[in-house]
Design a protein that fits this description.
Length: about 220
Amino acid sequence: MSEEPDTPRTRMARLMLALRSQGVTDPRVLAAIEKTPRELFTPDLFKDRSWEDSALPIACGQTISQPFIVGLMTQALTLEPRARVLEIGTGSGYQTAILSRLARLVYTVERYRTLLREAEDRFKTLGLTNVVTKFGDGGEGWAEQAPFDRILVTAAAPEEPKTLLEQLKPNGVLVAPIGKGPVQSLRRYAGDGQGGFKVELLGDVRFVPLLDGVAREL
């Protein structure tokens, strides 16, 4: 019996199986990942690894997150089709693109102008018309567009992100890695409707730190 050929389609199928086996089971999230061509967001040097379940380096010392983590965080948001979502850290735009398939509007903030421009080009290539971008300090959120139904933070905040939580609707959800060390705690904050939050720990993760201000690039 011959082995199945190693093609982009079979690699993607293996990734989908791996995600399900690790607990990413929401069919809408899985469909969004399957429909989003990760190779478009991956540097040329790593194109052949686009469908691996691993984080990969991109420009400006950042990374495109591991698909499992993308799926886990997206699933934890419990997105509804009419949701307005704030994403902190556009990066390559991969997570943004997946969110855009599940929500009405995605507002995304990036501190590296180079990354933001490249991500914007990818959004145009994919025909994503429900993504609004901003070059700025992600830790400050986007007060002018608040409150949001959901907030996703793709860099590690050193402590509870109070500024971002203040921009969440009373029954909203924020998912973020929290911690100062190389390993952080992925947390889900669910608003109780009265100004408080139920905090759920989703596991240990490794993210680049959430830095203040915007980056100075050469």
